[in-house]
Design a protein that fits this description.
This protein is an alpha+beta fold. It has one domain: Nuclear Transport Factor 2, Chain: A, CATH 3.10.450. 34% of the residues lie in helices and 24% in strands. It is built from four helices and six strands, in the order ααααββββββ. A four-stranded antiparallel sheet has the order 2-3-5-6. Strands 1-4 form a two-stranded antiparallel sheet. It comes from Amycolatopsis decaplanina DSM 44594. Keywords: Signal. This is Secreted protein/lipoprotein.
């Protein structure tokens, strides 16, 4: 019982220290780790980048499936494997909007994600990824009776633009890295 009490106190002290200092992680530019050689020992930063990129790729895999079949199921659980609020709620609303039109997406994005900032601050570990989305092969398709197959693309929306994501490590969720915020910078072509 004593060891549990010490662990709780240690956690409370760490949490209080993070709260009291108002620690805001300083982001430092970082590149993707070089291909490991037989003598390369991955650093904590290398491991964190890999985990964040895996979460980001999972986000794209599930969100693409949801956009292609928004009415096929409740996507909350699948998206919740890779997303947390505020992005989880925002993305679920987007999928529900597609289902209500009714419509779906066909085709695929072309992407080029890169880690652009890393902060392994004890209180708020996060990694920022900047991507270049190319939507030229992706189209919004109507599922409305009598209009099935009609392309509903917005001609004013850019087809290539910068996309940023913040992936955060959650100690309370077994140190999982989850996408917390995304920002489509439609005004920044890439």
């Amino acid at each position: 019982m004593k060891s549990k009490f010490v662990i709780v106190l240690l956690f409370a002290a760490t949490t209080a220290a993070c709260s009291e200092t108002g620690n805001t992680p300083s982001a430092t530019p970082a590149a993707l780790p070089a291909s490991p050689t037989s003598s390369h020992v991955p650093t904590a930063e290398d491991v964190a980048k890999q985990k964040a990129l895996e979460a980001y790729e999972g986000y794209w895999r599930v969100s693409t499936a949801a956009e292609k079949a928004p009415q096929s199921k409740d996507w909350r659980s699948a998206l919740g494997e890779y997303l947390v609020d505020p992005e989880l709620t925002r993305h679920l609303a987007e999928i529900q909007n597609l289902a209500s039109v009714p419509s779906h997406m066909e085709g695929d994005y072309r992407r080029a994600p890169a880690v652009t900032a890393v902060s392994l601050d004890e209180c708020d570990p996060r990694i920022k990824i900047t991507d270049c989305l190319d939507r030229t092969g992706l189209h919004l398709i109507s599922d409305k009776p009598g209009e099935q197959g009609r392309v509903l693309d917005n001609p004013d929306q850019p087809r290539r633009y910068e996309f940023r994501a913040e992936i955060v490590r959650y100690a309370s969720l077994n140190d999982r890295w989850l996408v917390q915020v995304v920002d489509a910078a439609l005004d920044k072509p890439c």
